[in-house]
Every structure is written in structure tokens, then in C-alpha cells.
Design brief:
Blueprint lengths: L1 E3 L8 H12 L5 E4 L10 E4 L6 H17 L4 H18 L13 E4 L5 H5 L6 E6 L12 H14 L5 E4 L2 H11 L4 E2 L19 E8 L7 H9 L4 E8 L6 H11 L5 E4 L7 H5 L4 E4 L6 H4 L4 H8 L3 E4 L3 H10 L2 E3 L5 H9 L3 H14 L5 H15 L1
Parallel strand pairs: 1-2, 1-4, 2-3, 4-5, 5-6, 6-7, 8-9, 8-11, 9-10, 11-12, 12-13
Helix pairs in contact: 2-3, 2-5, 7-13
Amino acid sequence: AIVIGMTDPRGNPRPRRMIELVQSIGYKVDAASARINGDLSVHHSYVIPAELSRIKLVSKICRKVSSILFYRFHNFLAINKLKSLAYNISKGTHHLAHVFKNRYDLIVVEDIELLPVAYHHKRNATLIFDAREYYPRQRADISPDKLKAVLWICNQYLKKCDVVLTVSNGLAKEYQKEFGIKTVLYRSTPNFIMLAPKPVNPEKIMMVHHGAADRHRKIENLIDVVKKLDNRFHLDLYLLTNKRVRDDYLKELKEIAAAHPRIKFFDPVPFDGIIPMLNKYDIGLSFIEPAVFNLEFALPNKFFEFIQGRLMLATGPSPDMAELVKHYHCGVVTERFDTEELADQLSKLKTIDIEEFKRNSHEAAKELCFEEESKKLVFILSKNR
């Protein structure tokens, strides 16, 4: 089997767990990605050449698709060019020939840009596409050319996959509506860890948020919430920057919070240390305004990590998160994305309320974990072996 994606699987929870799961059911697993930092516990690891980086590949697709669409009145010619486009990208460039020199029984694709490549090398392999996002509406600032390319790949290749996975019911419904495909809900749950909820200090209620310092997520809203709360409430932020998520936003957040000693910033912790780190807190904040479609129906890693850390959750009316919080009675949900409303709900909490929510997360953690979620994929893979 091979798991192929653009991000380093060592630091990306979903592809990393995919590799571990496929190994656990008896496959010998290779991995291919644009970056691999350090050793992976796989049979072989391949670095995808720079020529197939996300930007360059999408630009190539966009140029070709745009030129074809420009001459769309030549219908027969356009259709035949579209049919041969993915073949030319995957075979003619030879960029991934070294990766697919082996015949695989299973190919798992983690990024849509690589789906045409994988399909044209799959031979008799089972092809699984892990659609972590709804790609046509991935970002608010997606360019028209990139959107054309993504829509073309979706229309041409989603139905050719043996299985398409996605992370939330909202995204699954959109894929069904727009492309007529039935996806498998496969949530981004962490491994179960044997922990217990920590007692709450009534004089110092510790809140936490971790993840990318991404402007779309409006982390300044969390800072605003703390400003409205009494002195019992403290917030620690563990924020990650990278090439896409620049340091200037993190700098702005620190400036906004500078006058508030109850807000502190920390460096991100290693992947395996996230849940033990969270366990010392009381409330996990997952209050994400729907700046883009994928955030509206987000069901992120951090949501399940808060539960596995045995925290109470505080979230807005994001449908998929709100449904689980209400079902497991493990936190509060606002009716609007309004910092005043969230601060009001939090300020009314008594210590006994927070401890009850944390106990409910403790029970939810037994179900909302990788060991339970992965049973769906194990069943699917066992049928395709």
C-alpha cells in the first residue's frame, strides 16, 4: 500500500494515523509526500519532486484547463483534451514514476492535486481519496483558475475512486449534492488515552486553544471573550505558523493581548504531547466563525483532542461540532457567533458545572477515538483485499 500527500505525515495527524491503520491490518506501507522530516515507520518513504509541489501542479492544470475552456466551442476537441489532461500530467511528466514503480494493492490519496496522478498509476489497486475538506470552497480567496482546476478534478475523478472519505456530515452532504457521490464519514479522532479529568480550581479556570494562527479562524475573538470575563478565567494559546500561515498574524494577536496578563502564548507542543498537555486545562475553546464553507462545517482535530484531554468544550453554532457537544452534554454552544454571548455563558458557569461537563467528555472519549472510528475503514479495507 502507499499513502500519498503533499504534507509531511509525521506532523499531520490524519495521514499519520492512516499509515498506522493500514499497517495494523497487514499491509506493507510506503509513504510519499513533498516533505518528510525524519524517519517514518514505513517500508519506503519517497519525497515528491519539487516540480509537483501544490502551487506548480495546480498552476499547470489551470493553464491547460483555461486554454481548453477558452476554445470550448470546439466541443469534440475540448472533450478529448480534457480526457488526456490527467494522463499527460501523471504519465508524460514522469515526476512520480519512481514512486509508482511498484504495483500497489491499495493507494490512499490525501490531497486532491494528486488524485489524477494516483488514478492513472493505480492499475488494479483499490483507490481511496481522503477528502478532508470540501475542495471547491476550500478558501474564500481561491482564484478562478484554481477553482476551475479543482472542479475539473472533482468531476473527472471522484466517481472513479473506490472510496471517498470526508470528515463531517456537512461536507459529506455537499459532495453528494454537487458531485453525486456517497462519501464515508471518517472523523479526525485521536487515539484513546487513559486519562482522568483534572479537578477545577474555582479561583483559576484554565481555558485553552491550539492550532494554526490562521486569520480565517479569527482567534482575536477568543481574546475578546477573555476581556469580557472575570478574573477567574485564563486563556493559554498554542499557535502554529508555517509558510501559509504567516508570523505577522501571531504578532498582531500578541499585541492585542499584551495588556491582559490572563492571556498567555506558548510554542506548539509535539504531536504526541498535545493531549497530555490539554489534560491540565478545564475548557477547550473551538469557537470558529464560518469565514469559509469548510469552517462552517468544520469538525477539526482539536475538537476531538479537547474531548480526549477530558475538557469541557465551548463552541459556536457550527452544526457538526454543536451536534456532538449537545449529544454528549460536554459543554456549551452559543446560538450566534457572538463573543458577548459566549462570555455570558461562560461567566455563569459554576465549578460543579465545569466538572460535570469534563466528566461527560471523559465518557465521550471512549467513543470519539481513533480505535472506534477506524473500525469503519477496517471494514471497508477488509472487503477490498
